[in-house]
Amino acid sequence: MAQVHHLTKAALGRLEEELHDLTTRGRIEVADRIERAREMGDLKENGDYHAAKDEQGHMEGRIRHLESIIENHQIVEIEETDLVGPGRLVTMSIDGDPQETYYLGSHEEGFDKARAATMTPESLLGQAINGKRLNDIVEYETPNGMKLSVTIIAVELP
Asked: For 5-75, which CATH class?
C-alpha cells in the first residue's frame, strides 16, 4: 500500500504545477540539451552529454515522485482545535527536555524550516502524538527500543 501524503490544497496546487512544468517545459529543455551534446561527437568523453543525461534522470525521478504524491494524497482541512493532527504545529517536550516545535505533515508541504522542523504523521513519533490533545502525556518507543515520555505543550495552526 502506498504512503498517504497529507497536503493542504495550496501545497497540492504547487506540486501539480511543478509536475506540469517538469513534464512539459522541463522534458523539452533537457531533450534539447541532450541533442545539442550528441551533435558534438564522441559520447564517451562528452561531459555535456553525461551531465544532461544525469539531469534527465533526476528530473524523471522527481516526476515519478510527484505523480506518486498526487495519486496518494489526502487533503488536510485546517480548523481551529487543540487536537494534534496533520497541518498543525505541535510544541512538545520529550522526557523533560527543552520544548521543540514540529510541523506535522508532508515534507512536500514546503513548511518554513526556520520556524519548525517537519515530522510526518507516518513516523513513529507522529503516530504516537496524532490524535492527542494539549497537555496530554504520551509514551513513545523509539526505533532502538528506548521509551520516552512526550508532553504536548501547544497545538496551533501554522
From this structure: mainly alpha
